[in-house]
Structure formats: C-alpha cells, structure tokens
Amino acid sequence: MKGSIYKRCTCPVERDSKGRRKACKKAHGSWTFVADLGIDPATGKRRQIRKSGFRTSDDAQEELNKFLTSVATGQAAHDNRLTVGDYLRQWLETKEAAGIRPTTLRSYRQHIDAYLIPHLGRLRLGDLRATHVEKMLHDIAQPPAKPKSDEKIAKGKRRNPKTLSPATVRRVHATLRSALTSAKRKHLVGHNAAENLELPRAVRPKVVPWEPEELGKFLDHAATDRLGALYEVMAMTGLRRGEAAGLRWDDVDLTRGVITVRQQIVEVDGTGVECPFCRGEHRQYRFGRPKTASGEHR
C-alpha cells in the first residue's frame, strides 16, 4: 500500500487581456490524499481512496499515514462505496465457486435474499454497526404484518405469515457473521458488527423416537411399498435420508455386513444433486440380523 498528496485548486480559470491564465490567490484551495490499495481480487480493478479538504500538506500527510496504518491493522474499510448488499452477493459467489454443499449454499442465499439484503443491503459496508444488526435480528423475529387487502394476497403475500423461530434467527445471524468475518480478513471492514451480540435463545426441540413396536408396525405397513427395503435399511442402520438416497450397490458389502457411505443426494430447488461426502473420510454403518423374531422377515 502506498499513497500521495496533492493540492487541489477550485478557483475558476481567469485570463488577462492577452489570454494568459492569471495566478490564483495565495492560501487558496485545499490538500488531498490518495491511498492506493492495490488490485481488488473480486473485480480486477485498482482500489483508490481519496480524501480532500485539508488546509496544509502536513495535515494531509498526517491523515494519509493514519489511514494507511488503520488499513494495515484491519481497522479501516478499503472501499467506502461498497454496500452490504453488493458485498453479500460477492461473498455468495465466492462461496459457490469454492464448492460448498448445495444445501449450505441454498441456506446462505435464502438468508441473504429474504432477510439480510432487505434490512441491511443499502448500508455501506464500512458503516455497518452492531446496532444495525441487532435491529435487523429484532425485526425479523417479529410477526410479519398481514396483507391489508386481497389484492396483496393475490400478488403472493401469505394470508397468515409465520414468525421466525429463535433457531432460524440465529442461523441468519450466523450467515452474516461468517460473511463479515471474511470481509474483516480481507480488510474490507475494521470490525465484525455481528460479533458479541445478544441472541434469542434457541430451545432444542425434544426428540421422541419410536418404540420398537411402533417401528415394527411402520415397517410392516411399508413392506409392500417400492421403498420398503430402503426404509428398512434406514431404520436398522440410522442412515440419513440423503445418505440412503445416495447409496449404491458398490457401497454394500453383504459378506462383511458393512455399508460404506461415500456420498449423499439432496434436493435443492426441486433438483437432485449428488454431493461428495466427508471429503474422503467414509462413514461406515454395520448391520446384522434383526434382534427380534418378529423382524426375521424384514
């Protein structure tokens, strides 16, 4: 990073009777500094910050030195024109290019499009503060206003919109915090406005698993279904839906009684997507004979 200073003259051009430009009055104009921050990897364009209005060259140089120091230590934003909305879209493109899981990408996109951009998108990234984030989290946790007319309902407004759960609010916050962590690492912001906030408490729902008798009734009922065998494998091994959907015969060792989970198939926007699983570390589920006599036929 480097910078320079220069004097800017705002006087109108005046010429004498011979057409020569007249000299400007003394002590006029102001000094400006220019900070060169190099090439922006996201756009390929050179980034420069200008600030003017200094009375003397010493004042301009002093402020330039302070600015360059603050950028080097991560305490200043590089681009004072970049909005939160533009940055979040850039961050999402970066995440997609990095090959994150489609379900994670879908969640990020939903959070950004539905909540973060509508509430924070117009703010300049460097101006974002914790108070803005706290207000946004408070607002999205409130029951949405109901449509005032059938006309709005016809345009796609829900008649009875749902209130976001504390867990969903926390996930929206986590998306923003992750994006701002990346911005801070790139010295686009000097602080992460989403850190150290008071968040609504997410209560983990109580899980009530089926009793063996209930599971047996379900499998008996599903025995004639085309997916009956799949339900049985899932029940006996604990495979998740995406893992079961991605299962292939090559992943099943009947001799050893081992299923190796190498992939999962998830649904993203109505499309099946095959995803790499655990980056080469394969999870294994061992299965054997049913524990009860009533389950021998399954």
- Indicate the percent of residues in helices: 25-40%
Q: Termini, distance in Å?
A: 69 Å
Shape: elongated
- The tally of beta strands, per DSSP, is 8
SS-based structural class?
A: alpha+beta
Widest beta sheet: strand line-up: 1-2-3
Low-confidence stretches: 156-161, 277-282, 285-298
Identify the CATH class of the largest domain.
Mainly Alpha
Hey, roughly how much beta strand do the residues contain? 15-25%
Sheet with the most strands?
Answer: 3 strands, antiparallel
Could you characterize the architecture of this molecule?
- This protein has 298 residues and is α+β, with helices and mostly antiparallel strands.
- The protein folds into three domains: 2-16 and 25-72, no CATH class; 84-185, DNA polymerase, domain 1 (Orthogonal Bundle), CATH 1.10.150; 212-295, no CATH class.
- The protein has nine helices and eight strands.
- The strands form three sheets. The chain has a three-stranded antiparallel beta sheet, covered by helices on one side. A three-stranded antiparallel beta sheet has the order 4-5-8, with no helix packed on it.
- A hairpin with a 4-residue loop joins strand 4 (252-253) and strand 5 (258-261).
- Helix 2 (84-97) packs across helix 6.
- The chain is elongated, with a radius of gyration of 30 Å.
- The model is unreliable at 156-161, 277-282 and 285-298 (pLDDT under 50).
